[in-house]
Amino acid sequence: MTKTGIGIVETKYFTFANQPDEFILESKEKLSPVTIAYETYGTLNKEKNNAVLILHALSGDAHAAGFHKGEDKPGWWDNMIGPGRAFDTEKYFVICSNVLSGCRGSTGPASVNPKTNKPYALDFPIISIGDMVSAQKALVDSFGIDKLLTVVGGSMGGMQVLSWLVKYPQSIRSAIPIATALRHSPQQIAFDEVGRQAVMADPNWNSGNYYQGNPPDKGLAVARMIGHITYMSDVSMAEKFGRQKKDNKQPFKFTADFEVEGYLRYRGDNFVKRFDANSYLYITKAMDNFDASEKKPFHESLLGKSVKVLVIAFKSDWLYPAYQSKEIVKACKYAGIETSYCEIDSTYGHDAFLLEIQEETHLISHFLKSVSQKRGKT
User: Fold this and answer.
1) Where in the chain is the domain with CATH 1.10.1740.110?
2) Choosing from 59, 97, 155, 279, which is the catalytic residue?
3) 189-224: buried (b, 16+ CB within 10 Å) or exposed (e) per residue?
4) Which candidate in 128, 317, 346, 351 is catalytic?
5) What is the mean pLDDT of residues 183-193?
6) pTM value surpassing 0.90
7) Residue 155: active-site member
8) What is 188-285's CATH number, 3.30.420.40, 1.20.1640.10, 1.10.1740.110, 3.50.50.60?
């Protein structure tokens, strides 16, 4: 079987909750209309039972695989999606959407508020992980899909997987949460809060009203630098940079003398070119507020449900340490759910879910094969 990619792809848009209809959020606030950006790869079969929903992390978007016309950078999980890959597009119909409150085509703080004809900014309502999932459910329903073969995602994407298990267990056959948690720890909340404060300390933030002027690029870049440190591990940083100094370093005046300094500045500067600062605030807050056991114990939400679960963690991930994944496994098993757990020995830290392609492909391919066999051939 060929293992080439899927080629040129195009982002599409699904709009729902047009007036007089409204999308009711978990906070009881309402949005109308709502647009969700999405991409699809592969073909939905006649039975509509081969659909896979990919859920992205904080900085991701709908462009998970392939190339956009005129661009040379593939989607963020391209090595996992395509013929012969983990999510084999010759077998599966793969959907990936940008989350509600995002800034890559979905309705968010930068979108125009129909009541004012200006960007929502901080008038945009607080969004939960559950709200993101409810919007995804509306998208999936638009395809006439009654039951997804699986929902899969890492980090914040994994939180969305857990929310699917709580809100719509009858609509999925299986779930693959990767490097995630039932809820954020105080340390995880603390890192997010420092990032938010960096954004809001930028004078250009202007209480969120910067769309007609200069955006808070410096604050957002610092927030991304902080975040990126947590995505790597001590070992991966040492292997990638060591204490190597830049060849073109300036006389010591707080310039980026070390390679790791230059790398972090590069990541921060690139991030601001594609991400909205207010979206960063809203999404990180949604992550911090998420608690899969908020309304009732997580395992009680799964009692009596027929779903298979594969939980994946990484030994060097100190942002979402493996003990948090083991808590998910324990709850699933306590509910009588058929659950598999794999802890991959990687040095990449939290970024491992984007980089350990070979290990993840092996695990996910076999897992999806077992799920497919259980419900019949696709």
Assistant:
1) 188-285
2) 155
3) bebbeebbebbbebeebbebebbeeebbbbbbbbbb
4) 317
5) 98
6) yes
7) yes
8) 1.10.1740.110
